[in-house]
Amino acid sequence: MENLSRVKVALREGRQTFGLWQMIPGANVSRCLARAGADWVCVDCEHGNMDDAAMHDAVPAIVAAGVSPLVRIAGMESWMVKRALDCGAHGIVVPLIRSAEEARALVQAAKFPPWGRRGFGSPYSPASFGISSTEYLQQANHSLLTIVQIETKEALETVDEIAAVEGIDALFIGPVDLGNNIGFPILGGVVMPELKDAIARIFAATRRARKKCGIFAVSGEQAKIFAGQGFDMISVAADFPVLEMAMQSQMGVARSGVSRETPGLYRFPSGTPGMR
Question: Which are the catalytic amino acids?
Answer without folding.
Answer: 47
